[in-house]
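Technical note accompanying the year-one report. For the benefit of new consortium partners, we illustrate the data format agreed upon in the data management plan: each record pairs a sequence with a structure-token string. No post-processing was applied to the example shown here.
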Amino acid sequence: MDEKNYTDREQELETDVSLDDNGNLKFRRGYDYLPYSQWRIKRVLKAYMNAYLKNRPVGYKGNRYPGFVERYDIVDCDTDEVLYSNLTLYAICRVFASCNIPLHDDKSVSYKNINFKAVEFMDALKEKYGEENVKDE
């Protein structure tokens, strides 16, 4: 029997499909890119690598051409040594997605699910009746 020469990506894709207890196919969804915010990227770098993003200077009028993308260096917090250089946020997002780093954490805020009128109403109640008499639920 002929053995195929698999690339790492083909082997990874093979493991994404498995059988569940009932014998049905079960797929695991994997993403190549996730839209991490710049603040989330900074928190992940601080937590996992003890590093921060440093914007690369582009010079006078350097960002005035079509297709310009900001470039960043990843710098170690302790030694100020550049770990990785000339990266775009898009490239960092692709790496984080391939490492299965969650898109959101405890500090991530989603404004889609906030009812701002309700928040204003609760603030007005707290002003009128005091913090201890109004419960947020």
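Partners are asked to follow this layout when depositing records. The chain has a mean pLDDT of 80.
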